[in-house]
Design goal:
Chain A: InterPro entries: RNA_pol_sigma-70-like, RNA_pol_sigma-70_dom, RNA_pol_sigma70_r2, RNA_pol_sigma_r2, WH-like_DNA-bd_sf. The complex is a heterodimer of chains A (186) and B (99). Chain A is mainly alpha-helical. Chain A is built from ten helices and no strands. Chain A folds into two domains: 4-91, Rna Polymerase Sigma Factor, Chain: A; 112-185. Chain A has helices spanning 4-13, 15-36, 41-60, 70-91, 99-108, 115-118, 121-127, 130-141, 146-152, 158-185. The longest helix of chain A is centred in the last third of the chain and has 28 residues, at 158-185. Chain B is mainly α and 99 residues long. Classes of the chains: A mainly alpha (186), B mainly alpha (99).
Chain lengths: 186, 99
């Protein structure tokens, strides 16, 4: 069984091959479980990918401790998520929504009135150049070691990658601020 | 680094890093007395949330690609298995050459 530290290291430094290996080993078990519990192969894919995201985010945290095999751990997450999904589905109304209910749901889905909360900051991340986006996601979400990021993106040193990271963050902040100012002005 | 970048770094230290208890206490006071700093910290927190969400989307995309590859490999393996089984059956039915 892999130790938590070696698994974490593999995930952070060799994400794609590590996730592929985990996928190949565990997905058949998950598919069987979901299909035996009222779901389809497509449900199994969705719930497994959700579980892998939860798993990656937990594993990326330094405090991560794996007390079983990766497959067992993931199956545990899948069971919880699938149970929750079945509950959600069982509460869905069997008849069509009434017009009044549909209107109510549409109102609830309206963006918040506060311009700041409804700002699509995510869109500004997508508008950053590919290089900046890669750098920021690698560091802040994928938690890759800065040394590896510097090497992969051809920065001369960790220091220069750090400066570049803050420059990219500054660019993102400027786009958001400009949008806020624009929203307030109109 | 430019002062503007150092300010981002300082805020990051307090939002994502491990400030000491004394630093954290001082930070709380600064936020109460410096509205501009508090606004900057709130915006920066928003940026981190957006980056987290963008990272999730990226990971989901990568998992989708892994899934497609996995399905292709499984189909290929199943096809090979079926073909091999078929050939085995065909050859096992043929009478052996007389010795």
């Amino acid at each position: 069984m892999e130790t938590s530290a070696s698994l974490r290291h593999a995930l952070l430094t060799q994400r794609e091959p590590t996730l592929t290996r985990i996928y190949q080993r565990t997905f058949p078990l998950v598919r069987r479980y979901v299909q035996q519990h009222g779901g389809s192969a497509s449900d199994a894919k969705d719930v497994f990918q959700d579980a892998l995201i939860v798993f990656y985010e937990k594993a990326a945290a330094e405090s991560f401790v794996l007390s079983s095999s990766v497959s067992t751990y993931l199956l545990g997450i899948v069971r919880n998520l699938w149970r929750r999904e079945l509950n959600r589905r069982s509460q869905l109304p069997l008849t069509d929504l009434s017009e009044e209910h549909a209107q109510h749901m549409a109102e609830e889905a309206e963006p918040a009135a506060d311009g700041r909360d409804s700002l699509p900051v995510l869109d500004y991340v997508a508008q950053l150049g590919e290089r900046c986006q890669n750098l920021l996601l690698a560091f802040y979400y994928f938690q890759q070691p800065l040394e590896q990021i510097a090497g992969r993106l051809n920065y001369g040193s960790i220091r220069s990658a750090t400066v570049q990271k803050f420059k990219c963050l500054e660019r993102l902040r400027k786009s958001v601020r400009t949008a806020v100012a624009h929203a307030v002005a109109h | 680094m430019r002062p503007a970048l150092e300010r981002l770094q300082l805020i990051e230290h307090h939002l994502l890093g491990r400030p000491t208890a004394a630093e954290a206490a001082q930070w709380r006071v600064q936020l109460l007395t410096d509205a501009e700093l508090a606004a900057d910290a709130a915006t920066q927190q928003q940026l981190y949330q957006a980056l987290h969400e963008a990272g999730r989307r990226q990971l989901r995309h990568e998992l989708e690609l892994i899934h497609r590859r996995f399905e292709r490999q499984t189909r290929r393996r199943d096809w090979l298995q079926t073909t091999t089984n078929h050939l085995r059956r065909v050859f096992s039915r043929q009478p052996r050459a007389s010795q």
